[in-house]
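Hey all, quick one. A colleague (J.T.) asked me to put the 2-acetamido-2-deoxy-beta-D-glucopyranose job into the tracker so the inputs and the structure tokens live in one place instead of scattered across chat threads. No bug as far as I know, just bookkeeping. Sequence used:
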Amino acid sequence: MQRSSRMGSVVVLLALFCVVTSHLALAFTDGLLGNGNFEKAPKSSDMKGTVVLKSNAIPEWEISGFVEYIKAGQKQGDMLLVVPEGYAAVRLGNEASIKQKLNVTPGMYYSLTFSAARTCAQDEKLNVSVAPDSDVLPIQTVYNSEGWDLYAWAFRASYSVAVIILHNPGVEEDPACGPLIDSIAIRALYPPKATNKNLLKNADFEEGPYILPNTSWGVLIPPNIEDDNSPLPAWTVESLKAIKYIDSDHFSVAQGKRAIELVGGRESAIAQVARTIVGKTYELTFAIGDASNSCEGSMIVEAFAGSDTIKVPYESKGKGGYKRAVLRFKAVAIRTRVMFFSTYYHTSSKDFASLCGPVVDDVKLLSVRSPRRLV
Ligand SMILES: *[C@@H]1O[C@H](CO)[C@@H](O)[C@H](O)[C@H]1NC(C)=O
Ligand SMILES: *[C@@H]1O[C@H](CO)[C@@H](O)[C@H](O)[C@H]1NC(C)=O
């Protein structure tokens, strides 16, 4: 009797806890920031041509420096300025920035998603910051043939107000030469933990940056420059190029709703370190496939667990599908680094320009029980 009533109060407490936490989560809405796609225009009296004159002229934003408000179809000389989504975007000239404040929960992790299109600068970069974190992301390589890409960047909130700043640190001869920015969205991240069913965290890639429902390009996760917060919790993108985060609404994934596409060949690896026991045997299993995005040909994914490695071939017809692979290894350290990259570089057979590659999903790392001996 005593025991069951105690159990009852535990259940009530748990239920209360759930109500409280779900309420907190609801207070924050994932999606576009206020006027995050710049569809609300500045007053024409606050503009001279395309140049925005006042710091608060663009609804919901504060700007500084040479910022232009660019409408779809607009040209600079012969060059069409690419507006990634909808009616308009902003363009950040030399040292220009846009800023917006947002209420957040200190200690929680958030991921920003935004689209950026390169225009005329040689070496275009974007400095994304939420104090005290900031990173300069190269937006030089255009992965998508449309002329723009979606990028993700994550931060851990230190204060209850996050001041989100996108800043072009460039100094070009033509002060207008800078990136076009559009579709700025945010998502609260809930970094998953390792369990007794999987020694890797977020191994199915379900937790990650916001994917704009109307875009069918996925989101690039740039290489972590230092040991920063990852928009793909628990994973680090290493080397030079980004990997792409894709969703099942627009692509084929092996399991669940999300997966990663290795679009940078040997120049982009994704890694995670797991706790292991020296001398124990483990199995790293994973799915390799294609995203159903016309990425055709012979693919190979190289998987590593410490110094053990496996090369898994996959013949892609570009129409979706996957196979599973296993790497069995004996741990030689208390931490084992698991890593994946694509051996080859691929481009879409639709436009021969968009970078693409094999999809990795549903990764599992588990120790293998030593087989029982029959006596
Ligand atoms: C990036 O922006 C932050 C915040 O505005 C600033 O503190 C930092 O110095 C900038 N970094 C570069 C390289 O411009
Ligand atoms: C997505 O597209 C639909 C139809 O074109 C539009 O009504 C909606 O506002 C768009 N959503 C976003 C977030 O852009």
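Adding what we noticed when we looked at it: Residues 1-27 have pLDDT under 50 and may be disordered. Residues 127, 129, 134, 136, 165, 167, 169 surround 2-acetamido-2-deoxy-beta-D-glucopyranose (ligand 1) (CB under 6 Å).
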